[in-house]
Specification:
Muramoyl-pentapeptide Carboxypeptidase, domain 2, 2 domains, four-stranded antiparallel β-sheet, globular, binds zinc ion
């Protein structure tokens, strides 16, 4: 028995040395990797080419300010008193039928730069139809829908009507439009005005905008101006809203490009 123990010893020693060497190599590798972390790439206007002159809005498009990653949805409402820091009137050359639209200032400048690029590329029928909407406006909108549902079916309870309306309209305080960071687009002329495309008053309005050349362009290029398609088709479970081909949210080029490449929603990206 004694002889057997002696014979086993070199084996035990070499096994221990092997395990120790392995642990050392693993630790060393970890330390080296830890020291050699290359910073993740930040996307900027330098990564893309533009036909229009974007020199005056480069800093805005390249923003990585966290305030542009604000998450607004049914679980993250803004509340009654929230308003963006700075809201500006959008130049009426870019709004539908020259109507008054307001947006958070960086969002406004990015949206105008994007429309200018589309015009430079031959798509000259895109306009902003909706931007910043305050709490009171959203409440009025919601109340109107509640009234319309009551007219349609008077047997429904208030809770039942509210459930219906919430599928296509944000509850006051829960609309991303209250952040001033999102834009609804419309193409005119060329689309029937019988359906109120792009203003979120009809559940069917995605049928129109999703079939336009403008939408195809936005799908491929909106991230180059810091915008994302906020409510993609089939992502209702994540965003809480049905598909809205016309609604774009400003987050800055870096986040927009990463979200675009990942195929995630803003909710999925931020979690
Ligand atoms: Zn919208």
């Amino acid at each position: 028995m004694k002889e057997l123990n002696i014979a086993k010893k070199p084996f035990i020693i070499s096994a221990a040395v092997f395990v120790l060497a392995l642990a050392f190599a693993f630790t060393l590798g970890f330390v080296i990797r830890g020291c050699d972390v290359t910073p993740p790439k930040t996307y900027t206007t330098e990564d893309f080419t533009y036909m229009s002159d974007i020199s005056s809005v480069k800093d805005i498009l390249n923003t990585t300010n966290e305030k542009y990653l604000l998450l607004v949805n049914k679980k993250n409402p803004l509340g009654e008193t929230y308003a963006p820091e700075s809201v500006i009137d959008v130049d009426k050359a870019y709004t539908l039928y020259e109507k008054g639209v307001q947006l958070e200032s960086a969002t406004a400048q990015a949206a105008i730069a994007m429309i200018n690029e589309m015009r430079a590329q031959g798509i000259d029928n895109v306009y902003i139809t909706s931007g910043y909407r305050d709490y009171a406006y959203q409440k009025k909108l919601f109340d109107n829908y509640m009234y319309a549902e009551w007219q349609k079916d008077k047997t429904l309870t208030e809770a039942e009507r509210e459930e219906k309306v919430r599928q296509y309209s944000a509850y006051p305080g829960e609309s991303e439009h209250q952040s001033g960071l999102c834009v609804d687009f419309f193409v005119a002329p060329g689309m029937s005005e019988l359906v109120n495309y792009g203003s979120e008053t009809e559940k069917t309005n995605d049928i129109g905008f999703a079939e336009t050349e403008a939408f195809e362009w936005l799908k491929e290029n909106a991230h180059k101006f810091g915008f994302i398609l906020r409510y993609p088709d089939g992502k209702e479970g994540e965003t809480g809203y049905s598909y809205e081909s016309w609604h774009y949210r400003f987050v800055g080029i870096d986040a927009a490009t990463k979200i675009h490449e990942s195929g995630k929603t803003l909710e999925g990206w931020l979690e």
